Amino acid sequence: MSIDQLAETAQAMVAAGKGIIAIDESNATIKKRFDGVGIECTEENRRAYREMLLTTPKLGDYISGAILYDETLRQSTKAGVPFTKVMMDNGILPGIKVDKGAMPLAGFPGELVTEGLDGLRDRLKEYAKLGAKFAKWRAVITIGEDMPSGTCIEANCHALARYAALCQEAGIVPMVEPEVLMDGSHDIDTCYEITEVTLRSLFGSLYEHNIMLEGTILKASMVVSGKDCAEQAGIEEVAEMTLRCLKSSVPATLPGIVFLSGGQSDEDATAHLNAMNQMGPNPWPLSFSYGRAMQSAALKIWSKDLVGNVAAAQQTVYARARDNGLAALGKWKK
Ligand code: 13P
């Protein structure tokens, strides 16, 4: 795989007015989402739910790619068409979550390190054969008293770089995701500081591991006030601080940055992205790779009637894709 092919995929992921839908919840995480709306977490319900999302009519108007979970990458529609074929036919690139989750970092109570490097080379080879064009690895950085430690940031960024190198070797574009959690009572300045330190460490590690940045996408968390902070920053402040932080730490050669929603409301996630694009031009396309902010409204509708409400749920998925696609151009209106 040449750098040109990786770069082409990366650019397609952040094509103007398009973004990513993250539907890569592990079975444990999707169980939590299903529990929340009273759906039993069976393999068939997970398949049917992902079929509803992926067969949304005209989803490709605003969606360039979807991140799947291992089980989903191997599944098909009820009519027997592999999900990967449905996606490619609609111009949607298949992506795959390849990390094995964030585990407690030994010696650092309360901090996490993402696992999954062992055997990753072989898994990536198989994923490439199954049709995956890009991958995702999520590192989790927690803000708290005396947290995060430098050790936690370095260990996670080192793992992200090793994962990225293996992806590029397999011809798969790595999406690198260092998520600074919103949980906590810290203010937005603290979030800025931690996000900047984390991103600088990440790009230092990517440089040390010979990662081709032209074939890499960053999935970033926005700079926001902690969820329990008394003073909540407004839309403009979040957009301005996030842009400043990214500009001070992310090389301009990167083909694009997509954001996670991280527990923001649907409307905030869209409004923040829209505001950042209105403040442009920026060094990179800025788009979305939302999980909850793309799905939660549709899941609620679907849960009330798994067969009868498919079309209504899909209309909501399409509406969220359109709003976020417009926000990726700075053209969204409330
Ligand atoms: P949220 O947008 O729900 O944070 O999920 C995105 C994601 O893929 C986190 O890894």
What average pLDDT do the residues reach?
Answer: 98
Gap between N and C termini = 43 Å
Biggest pleated sheet: 8 strands, parallel, barrel
Radius of gyration: 19 Å
Q: SSE order, as H and E?
A: HEHHEHHEEEHEHEHEHEHEHH
Per CATH, which architecture?
Answer: Alpha-Beta Barrel
**How is the CATH topology named?**
TIM Barrel
Q: What general form does the structure show?
A: globular
How many domains would you count in the coordinates?
1
Strand order of the largest sheet: 1-2-3-6-7-8-9-10
State the secondary-structure class.
Answer: alpha/beta
Description:
By secondary structure, the protein is an alpha/beta fold. It has a single domain, classed as TIM Barrel (Alpha-Beta Barrel), CATH 3.20.20.70. The protein is 46% helix and 15% strand. It contains twelve helices and ten strands. The strands form two sheets. An eight-stranded parallel barrel has the order 1-2-3-6-7-8-9-10, surrounded by seven helices. It has a two-stranded antiparallel sheet with strand order 4-5. α8 links the parallel β7 and β8. The structure holds 1,3-dihydroxyacetonephosphate (13P). 1,3-dihydroxyacetonephosphate (13P) binds next to α11.
